[in-house]
Design brief:
Layout lengths: L9 H27 L4 E8 L6 E9 L2 E7 L2 H8 L3 E8 L3 E12 L5 E12 L3 E10 L6 E10 L2
Length: 156
Amino acid sequence: MAEDLTGSSVPSDLQTLKENVLDLNQQLTQLEDELLYPSSQSAFYISIEVGSTVRLVDINMSLDGQHVAYHFYTPQEYAALTKGGMDRIFNGNISTGSHDIKAVITGYDPLGKSFQRVMSYQFVKGRERKFIELHISDDANKSQAEFIFHDWDIKH
């Protein structure tokens, strides 16, 4: 085996170097994840029950009194939502603590009557990423739209 001036063999030096490179790669991957997906990141989604007859026209959303999102739904986007799709209406960084979402939804109920509904939701943002979904469906009688908020924390 070849040895350098300090007496160590080249294969063991290569093994040590390889371990150092793998460790550095792992640290860089972790740093990249922290930069791309910070714990302050939060996202709001809209979904519609598959087969629902509620027709979503648009949504206007504010967070803690500040306007953060508006979206008008095209027929193609609405069709995607009724087939199980979700629309990410907001993606941003939110500080930890209590927050209030207000969503103004315009659409047509299952009977074809137009409506405008104002929905509010309070949540607490912890140290983890927070995802919130506003799910729209028909009520039990299929005569009105029903709105339910869901939220979950995502750990790295």
